[in-house]
Amino acid sequence: MTFRSFIQPPTCAEIIPGLWVGDLSSVSTDEIATSSSKSSPSSSSDSGRKKVVTVITILFEQYYIDLAKDYFELQNRQRKDALDEGDASNERLHRCRMNTTYIKHVVFTLEDKFDADLLSMLPSALEAIDEALGVDMNKASSPITPSDNESLGTETTIKPIGDDDDSPERICLVHCFKGMSRSVSVIIAYLLSRHSHRFKSFEEALRHVRNERPIACPNVGFALALRQFQKTIATTTD
Q: Where is the Tyrosine specific protein phosphatases domain (predicted)?
C-alpha cells in the first residue's frame, strides 16, 4: 500500500499568492510544484524559476506527525534523485523537482477539538508563515524574525522579499489531516492579521478560503476563537 492510497489523492489550494492549504497527503507537494502561482499566472510553472517550499504541519497524533515527517523527507530524496539520476519519465514534474528546494518543515501540535487552545499557538504559527513567505513587515530588506512581530494586530504592509524574476518563488503549505479545520483556522488568522485591510471579519476570510477550498470548516471552538482573535485585531488597529 502506498502513502497516497492510505487516505486520498493529494488535495491542496492556493489561498493567496504563495500560501497553500491542504490535507495530510498534500505533503507530496508535486501538485504545488506543477501549478502556476497566483502571483504569476501568466508564467509557466516549469519555466525554470527556483521554488523554495516550507511545509507547516498541524497535527496531534504522533503517528501522523511521523508520517508527515517521513513523507517530507521522501520528497527531498526524490528531488535529489531527480538531480542525480535525471529521471525524466514525467518531464514536467522532473523539471519542477529539479527547481524545487525544500527548505523547512515546521510541526505544531494541536487537536481538532472544541476546547483545543488555538489562540496560544497562533503567534508562532503566523510567524512561521511570515518566514516561509519571506515577507517584510515594514522592514527594509530582511526577513521577519520572531522578535519583529510582537503585536499580531498591528496593521502592516506585507512585501515579499526579493520579489523579482530572478528571486526564488516562496511557497508555504499549511496542512492538517483533512485540510478542513486546523490548517484552515491558521490560514484565516493569517488573513485577518496580515491582510486586515482586505479581510475585516472572520466571515469574509472564511468565505475567501472556501472559494478556493470548499470543504473548509473550522470547528465551533476554533470559529469562536477566531472571532475573539478578530476583535483583538480590531482593537489594536483602531
A: 155-214
